[in-house]
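Task card 7
Instruction: Convert sequence to structure tokens.
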Amino acid sequence: MLYRIMQEGNSCRIWIREPDYSTVYDGILEKAEDKYPDDDEIVIFDSSGMGDFADYLKASGRKVLGASRFADKLENDRAFGLKVMEDSAILVPLTKEFSDFESGIKYAKEYNGKLVFKPCGDLPSKLSYVSCDSQDCIDYMKFVKSFYGKEIESFVLQEFIEGAIVSSEFWFDEYGSVGDPNQTIEVKKLLSGDLGPSTGCSGNIVWSSNLNNDVIQQGIGLLDNNGHVGPIDLNTIVNESGVYGLEWTPRFGLDALPTFMQLLKMDLGELIAGLVNGDLVNIKVDTSNIAAGIRVSIPPYPIEPKTAKEVQKASPNLGAPIRGLDINDKRVYLYEVMKKDNKLVHSDGTGVIAVVSDLGRDVKSAFRAPYRILEEAKIPDKQYRDDLISTLDRMHRDLKEEVYA
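Output:
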């Protein structure tokens, strides 16, 4: 994001909190020595989790986008997030919160059906799990307890709802939402055929249009005037019974954001400055095309960051050469990269290289250029899904059928 804003003529610098990611964008962006901005700088937080600091900066007169105490609570406190949905007439799957695994296992035995396990707080995304049946859920909880039991203060068990999955994202200034929402459908499994571990995102499509759903509009309306500036996303399942809310994402969606940027018909810096200054009337986007994105990575991804350093001793990727991905190509959104001897290589991190995205009138045409770019890219052990056209086209058609129903 900062590199694109810099291309638009702005001066930018980056501060990285996590030491294990300290070399990201070395040789590409100016690095800040600490997290305290100058008075005239706009501060962009790329994730939730630093709401206290973000609100402190706002109180001291700084312009801030992308974090707040409200965002932290909305994402990490699942009970609070579900209550916000219920207060706005959004249907919510039967959900029970537990502070110990024994109670959760007992509930799963009595429920005798398909459940979704979701840990609360800042934990690896791969721990969320859709079970096949109650026994599968019980076995999985015992497994999670043995490795992550001390880190998980609470978790929820949620009934599995059949339907089409879609996220609706609104952008906020301090007064409320600005412009129409954009919608995202994504796949999380690493491997084609929805096999392998879950990731943050392996591929997605994004488009901008109002689904004309009064329930979602009403739910988002409840978030107005909470002080959060930036995007807030509502993840839902739609079926003939209505709209079921699953969870909130009050931060940048990865990889929804890089793909959404293809739709922007205004400078990214103009969007951010307009939101933090509270004078943006509308967000200029392409409403006639679909954007499609593919995540490309290298081993040991999708290893979790906490264990990446140890795993890289056996499977090193620091300095792996990256050829064929042009940092100045707006279709290429680079993650864990740096320049060494003026050449693009993988930096510290888990192995996430980039999202490559483009526009098209339909899903197939939108993926045409991203697949061509990745096929020609020369990256050792590159890995990405090759079934996104068929998978996401089917999911998109399913959504249309459910919405019309």
